[in-house]
Amino acid sequence: xxxxxxxxxxxxxxxxxxxxxxxxxxxxxxxxxxxxxxxxxxxxxxxxxxxxxxxxxxxxxxxxxxxxxxxxxxxxxxxxxxxxxxxxxxxxxxxxxxxxxxxxxxxxxxxxxxxxxxxxxxxxxxxxxxxxxxxxxxxxxxxxxxxxxxxxxxxxxxxxxxxxxxxxxxxxxxxxxxxxxxxxxxxxxxxxxxxxxxxxxxxx
Length: 204
Prior knowledge:
Layout: H1 2-29, E1 78-84, E2 87-92, E3 99-101, H2 115-119, E4 124-125, E5 130-131, E6 140-144, E7 150-154, E8 157-158, E9 180-183, E10 189-190, E11 202-203
Parallel strand pairs: 1-5
Antiparallel strand pairs: 1-2, 1-11, 3-9, 4-7, 6-7, 7-8, 9-10
């Protein structure tokens, strides 16, 4: 009876010791992870969107210049003829009477400058003068005035206007001072009568 009890106690102690040993073994064999895996996700930085810069104001560019080409006043002179009380004589393209000056005796030169040219403006041209009507084109030429302008010559005589002729066909300059005359289509001065303020009867 006593032996059976002793064996039972011994068996209990052995079981306890065995259980304690098992617990100790389990504790020693457990692995502790010292390095925790750091989840290093790449930074989710989206690339910067570089939209092209829009200028706040557009520069206006002018591609054309209005530079007008200005036409020279008068252009190429036209010499024509008209007929009236003085016969057939020279006029310009607008019918204004043309005169010669007796003082123009030196070929290729005008004797009318200063105040004279104010009262008797020269017929000038920027191109080759043209003839129409009974005027002869082969009698037309030019001379150079002191200011560089080209004055029209018909036959032997430089041609002029008279500032008192205010309309086409007037011949108020005829015989003024006994030195100013209208010019016939033959290139010679017409010295037969004084001028008139009336328009000629016809042109030709």
